[in-house]
Amino acid sequence: MPTLSTTLDPRSSSYLERRQAMLARLDELDETLAAARTRVRARERVELLLDRDAPFLELRTVTGSALVGGVGQVEGVHCLVVADEPGTIEGTGDRAKAYRLAGLAAESGLPLIHLAEPGRAHPERRRVPAVVAVLFGGGTAPSADYTVAVRPAAAEADFLAEDERDAIRLARLCLRRLDRPAPVPPPGLAEPPKYDLDDLVGTADVREVLARVLDGSEFEEFQPRSGTDLLAGWGAVYGYPVGVLSGGPGDLKAARFAELVRDSGTPLICLGSAPVPTPDLAVTLTPGDPAYRARLLLAWPYPGASAEADAVIDPRDTRTALGIALATVARRCA
Predict the structure, then answer these.
(1) What is the enclosing helix (H) or strand (E) of 166?
(2) How far is the C-alpha of 69 from the C-alpha of 115, rounded, in Å?
(3) Angstrom distances, CA of residue 39 to CA of 29, 84, 195, 196, 241
(4) What pLDDT digit, counting tens, does each position of 168-196 carry?
(5) What CA–CA distance (Å, rounded) separates 31 from 39?
(6) Which domains are assigned to the chain?
């Protein structure tokens, strides 16, 4: 597969100006996230639940919610994890975030694990394939495949734990026993990109982004002489094959490419702006990019990004975030 080249000049004034502006926005994002990350107990419980050294893609971090939620691995299976912070009162933002997270679990076929506090509503079961609920401090047992409660607890719990760590252990045991789909592994070892991810702080040029996100910086372009403002082609991220669309116009080219990608069972990623409103994944880079109805929407930090995105990410984390996201959607695309 052809390898993308780079024309990025890190000494140019345009690059340095954009880099400085992005670093300032990242500082602002860090301050916002630091305020949100006062939810210490919820995060500690999530860390205990996840597999050792497993990455966690936290979602909806800046929505004013006391929930911690995101995608991570438990017993080798990607799960949607929702954790309540003790001592907080449920608000509208919590209910909206829980609804979105449960919807993502349903759309992506992910098991949902809820680390619940008394008096807090449980995410709606809807079409979520499997649910494990862990009740800290009592409360009403939700509709779940398995319920774990810390002593003293409601009699309707399936398992009674001696303390919080025991409850987490039992939750992991429950996940092993669920009739869940086998994880979808990437098809092979992934070669890292040939260019430095740190360069993404100073550019939003789509070809430069792809050169720093795709495995081996390899990209097979589709119809390169047709609709040259629209970039379309195939690559891979952490071994997962992907189709990529960016730019416009070029509706016929975009429609044809999207059809080919979906017929092959490959996830479709829209990067920046593209004329396909419902990709599997999307990453918006600037304020002018459309608000996609994607299964999962990631955004680089820019004004208004947090209002529309599932996760606002550091540009340097784009490859990692896409890798986690692809693990969540690969089963439904196959």
Answers:
(1) helix 164-177
(2) 10
(3) 17, 9, 36, 33, 36
(4) 999 999 988 886 555 555 666 789 999 99
(5) 14
(6) 37-177 (3.90.226.10), 197-333 (3.90.226.10)
Question: What pLDDT, on a 0 to 100 scale, did the predictor assign at position 323?
Answer: 92
Q: How confident is the model at residue 93 (pLDDT cuts 50, 70, 90)?
A: confident
User: Bigger pLDDT: 152 or 246?
Assistant: 246
Contact 187, 239 (CB under 8 A): yes
Which residue's entry shows tokens 């390898």? 3
321, 311 Cβ separation under 8 angstroms: yes
Query: How much of the chain, in percent, has pLDDT values that exceed 90?
Result: 51
- The pTM for the full model equals 0.86
Sign of CA dihedral 188, 243, 81, 105: negative
pLDDT of 23 over the 70 cut = yes
Quick one: CA torsion of 277, 212, 4, 299, rounded to 10 degrees? 20
